[in-house]
Amino acid sequence: MGKHSTKKGRAVKKNKQAKLEEPDELTRAPHSFVIHKGEVGQYVQDLTKDFRRLMEPFTASSLKVRKKNVVKDFVSVAGLLHVSHLVMFTKTDNNAYMRIARLPRGPTLTFKVHSYSLARDVLSLLKKQFVATKHFKHSPLVILNSFSGEGAHIKLMASMFQNMFPAINLAKINLDTVCRSVLFNYNQETKMIDLRHYAIRVVPVGLSKGIKKIVQSKVPNLSKFNDVSEYITKAELLSDSEAEDDPKSHVTLPQKLSSRGNMESSQSAIRLSELGPRMSLQLIKIESGLMEGDVMFHELVTKTQEEIKIINKRKEEKRKLKEQRKRIQEQNKQKKEAEKEELKNKSLEGMKKKQLIDENKKILERVGVEDGDNDEDWYRKEVGEEPDEGLFTQNNNSGRGVKRRKSFTEMKELKKRKLNNGGEKKNSRDDYSRNNRNTNSKFGNSSRDDYSRNNRNSNSKFGNNKNDHKKFKHGDGKFNANRNGMGRNRKNLGSKVTRGRRHV
Questions:
Q1: Any idea where the domains of the chain sit in the sequence?
Q2: DSSP 123
Q3: By three-state DSSP, how is residue 279 classified?
Q4: How far apart are the first and last CA of the chain?
Q5: Higher pLDDT, 155 or 244
Q6: CA torsion, points 117, 121, 127, 129, in degrees to nearest 10?
């Protein structure tokens, strides 16, 4: 039999992307996550979507963020997806903020968004709107203006903006892929950064407006002309675009472009159409870590060296305390694991011991049922020798081997018997008085002698009544049981007696 090969499903066979691996140029290119955090409102959410479109194609365009997601969730998957930057939009009561962080360890730049315009608002202001279809398949061209000032924060800011987009190799670049541009303009006086997003178009120069339409395969309207020559030579149809008026926009093409009329080594003009969004930013803070760490730069707060030392000292103490708590927690965890393991071993030993005892009991019970002998007789029969003295002391005392467990009925009867015995002990004094007292009544064998048996000596001629031993509550206006004393409502007895009844 040959090697067994796993069968692949029809969907896996038809999936071309599963067989292909991404080239190094794509994996090394900087990728980004663009998200918003907290309650930001509908406009900031739309700004987040427009910024994702600006960062295409190396960004997660359809990324869905939940409320319970935190920054660590995005950092954990960043390495697998080759994500290098995180752009996060937040909003307070006063302004919106944008944070740009380098994954996975920082630094983090915090910008204050003074003003912004969405892409739909920018397009609505254009007189002639430009429809970009294939422009977002390639990364934009980054243009940094006036970032050459002094200060480490300016250099760090410029490098962060530049590294968010893939680098361009001038020797191998294809001009057809350069379809968009992103402009970052820094004003050193106001310290504001203006962000603009444009679409790039290349138009041939030196052609009239009618000829351009014919070259670009557009059918002109000739209803107002008698001849085609009038359409071409008429002065009103000459191009009056700003590209032809400004000679600085004219370039010589080193390559042939896919658009009509743009041949190699020919003169063409570059036109820009704004796509949006627009943003006016100000750098507020630079942190060394990912959304945390030492503050390397702050626009609004300045601290002295002494304050910085105190802050660093507090951070060091906090770090040491955190390490100490972590170490103690680890020790407690190991201790609990050891106790748990020890308890488990003891439990297993107890279970084995109990199992062994139960097996021995079953063997002894089976032997006792079969032979009917005690342990000494069984030892003599099996071993053939006399047992040592004291070997079966416990069994010899019982004489019956293993003690049989009582049933529920037997236990209930035994409990009832004990309770009855306790009642007899409780009334032992009355028993003593019954057995050891000598009464003078001539009716000692009658049931009427209960009065004398209960330690009462009375010479009344009515002592033979069987109802005399009943007790009544004191003070209820009836006959009192204390015959020798006088009750509160005691009345004199009459002399008439009929069959043991008293008449007053």
A1: 24-205+245-298, 304-364
A2: H
A3: strand
A4: 124
A5: 155
A6: 100
